[in-house]
Amino acid sequence: MQKTVVVIGATGAQGGSVIKHLLNHPEFKLKAVTRKPISPAAKELTRQGVEVVAGDLGNKDSLRRAFSGAWGVFAVTNYWEHTGKEYEHGTNMIDIAKECGVSFFVWSSVDHQPRDASKCESKDKITLHLKESGLRYSIFYPACYMENISNMWTSQDGGMKTISIPMPADAPILWYSVQDTGAYVKAALMEPEKFTGKEIRAGSQWATPKQIVELLNGSGQEIFKFDAWDKEKFEEYEKQNGLSNEICAMMRFYINHPQNDNLRRTDVEVTHKPQTLKQYVDGNYKILVGQPRFALRGSSTYIPTPLRASVDRSPLPLCMATK
After folding, report:
1. C-beta separation of 319 from 145 below 8 A
2. DSSP string over 121-163
3. What CATH number is attached to the domain comprising 135?
């Protein structure tokens, strides 16, 4: 008999990867939870044989209907889309999963973040709630999405694309492709006894902003440049830009914790070999050098996509998680 796995955020980045890796697996039946079951993305999931159900993380009754009969749950929250409600959404999923008798719960959190970022605080509290719930669980910690690279350049100067982010050129960032998420989650769902109570950290490799630019220019055609930030420029940006508090806290984390491979430590080894940055860039180069997806109005500075919700009310769900 197949085990039903509920996937939260099935039309998003992490949930979509989980669907892709579990689709047509003989051991699992998939149930996708979305607020818009008639959206094109949801209809495509239905076409692929996934059961799509309406659900709202703020509505416990809708979660009861979604989790009914489920063996497992993959849960993720979007801090940037639901600022101030993330803790409620996360604990709702945990409580209803326990109530519905869910056997295994995989929670996507944020690892080793600075404690002054409310995004990190709410996820920490949800993680603590999960650990105290009595559910069998595993916690997935993603690194920074390689997919973020397509958002980082914001202007062209004489044919050059400028990448400007609030951190020094030589500050290492731990990267992974969100496309690999499902491989890690699948490993946990396949062997719940092995992964119960364990932490899974997804990190492919470290690279600085300068190295990213070098990789993008690797074809020999120099089309990207990096606008390096010194300490003074960073602190001035942090002081003046109220919208940037969360991002600055995360950027400070990278600056203060250079290339610490403990951030890739995992309790249980997953045999999946994640994409390298070169593999990702080579496979997505046309996307990466296309039109910039977001620039702050009146500025040539990159503002990470999550802040778009605060700036122009048109959010794109993109992870800025550190590890």
Report:
1. yes
2. HHHHHHHHHHHTS---EEEEEE-EEGGGGGGTEEEEETTEEEE
3. 3.40.50.720
The pLDDT confidence band at residue 317, using thresholds 50, 70 and 90, is very low
Mean pLDDT over residues 160-172, rounded? 78
In 3-state terms, what secondary structure has residue 73? strand
Q: What does the pLDDT read at residue 217?
A: 87
- Asked whether 151 and 120 are in contact (CB, 8 A), the reply is no
Domain count, the chain: 2
pTM, 2 dp: 0.81
With a CB cutoff of 8 Å and minimum separation 6, the contacts of 225 are 157, 160, 161, 162, 163, 213
Q: Is 51 helix (H, G, I), strand (E, B) or coil?
A: strand
pLDDT at 236 over 70: yes
Phi, psi of 135 (to 5 degrees): -70, 150
For tokens 């990448």, name the residue: 163
Name the β-bridge partners of 161: 156, 224
What's at 7, amino acid-wise?
A: V
Same domain flag for 170 and 279: yes
